[in-house]
Structures are given as C-alpha cells and as structure tokens.
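Please decode residue identities from the backbone states below.
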C-alpha cells in the first residue's frame, strides 16, 4: 500500500491518536474510515458510478451529472447539520 506524509496541527494529530487508541485500531484505519464516510472516490470510480446510474436511469450525461451533484450536496448538507 502506498505511503503518504501529511501535515496536521498538533491538536488534530492528538485527536487521531486518541481516536485510534479508543477504537483499538491504527491512525491509518481512522483516516481511511473518515474518507470512506465522506465517500471519497477516485475520478475513475466516480465516472463508473455515473455510468452505472445513467444505464439504470436512462439519463443522458448532463442529466446524470446534475442528479449526482444534487444528491452529493443533499448528503453533505445532512452531514453538516
């Protein structure tokens, strides 16, 4: 698995350490879970999801993208509320 170096504030790093310890897991697993919860996808994964949605919904490209954008915004608004 590729490695990455990131810069965090001391408090964010401490929060990650505490969360990992509380869950009995690694910091990498905490970050991976957070990215999954935010539905972070590669461009290729996102493109494949749009293609699948278009095939199932009989939408053209513009309609599919519009639907995806609206759905993403709705989910983000719910999470931020």
């Amino acid at each position: 698995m590729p490695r990455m170096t990131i810069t965090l504030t001391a408090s964010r790093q401490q929060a990650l350490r505490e969360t990992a310890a509380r869950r009995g897991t690694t910091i990498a697993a905490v970050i991976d879970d957070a990215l999954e919860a935010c539905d972070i996808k590669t461009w290729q994964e996102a493109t494949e999801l749009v293609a699948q949605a278009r095939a199932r919904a009989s939408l053209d490209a513009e309609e599919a993208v519009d639907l995806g954008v609206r759905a993403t915004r709705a989910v983000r608004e719910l999470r931020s509320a």
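Observation: The chain has a mean pLDDT of 88.
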